Amino acid sequence: MKAFFLLSGENYLLARDEILFLLGIKTYSSPDKCALIADINDNILKSISRLAYTKKVYKLLFSSDIKSLEDSMRKFSWDTVYKKDFCLRIKSLDKKNKEHGLEEKSLAGFIWKAVKKPKVNLDNPATLIELIFSGKKVFCCLLIYEQKENFEERKAHKRPALHPVSLHPKLARCLVNLTGTKTTDEVVDTFCGTGGILIEAGLMKIKSTGYDIDKNILDKCRKNIGFFRIKNCRLIYSDSLKLRRKCSYVVTDLPYGRNTKDIDADKLYSYFLNNLRRILVKRAVVVFPDDVNYKKLVKKAKLKISSEYSYYVHKTMTRKIVVLTK
Question: Which residues neighbour 141 within 8 Å (Cβ) at sequence distance 6 or greater?
């Protein structure tokens, strides 16, 4: 099936690679920075509900230029996708090019005439067709998934145990997905803090283990994990720099500023990366503060950067997200 992914528009590279890593997609096209098109198998359809930076996923029925749209609508076999009732909507990815001279009602007429018992449902249609305009092209799409995850309700200040520098839940989920983990895998957070990454992993039914050297922080993490009823999650009071167990996937937000407790940050990160090389089996996703020369530290630890991203937080903070392999 050829799928059309409508991205959130917050961070194109993160949204794109979250899809590619999680779904194992090798080839794709991108008609716009809010869209990605790729072939996917039916057996990975369940995984699309994990995507954080994807708003909607469609089955791409056909594409055409604007002039040929009506002819394409007339020729398409609508009875092959029609179920119960329908609605047709027009969406433009290009804010500067909304005037295409076409109306939803007239285009919906092609579907109405093509099916045996047509019924329009504007509120909650079983068959939602969206015509997505991008430049001079139109993509005719059938909605198969819409993101309705309420990430805002899981932000740090709404959890029982607050921590001021916790990752946004949407970003935390994306980081887990960048590992490409399946629900049968385990994610390890070596600096788990109050559990932002563990919560998102748990809500996706992924086994997780969190380590922290601060008992007070670990107690807060336990409180948050319990609040969201996360199962299959272990919390261990231990120095992750001395961790010796093998880990297939590591996802962690490195401590910085006051959280380093006066320890030299470069030295801490260097110890961590050297140990990561010893314990890592497949892939790690590590978040660095932007004032750290992480490339030098990664190279020194003999790890490889698979991909990297900048994530703007506010004018005084940008995080660097790095995907690492051995």
Answer: 4, 58, 59, 60, 61, 129, 130, 131, 132
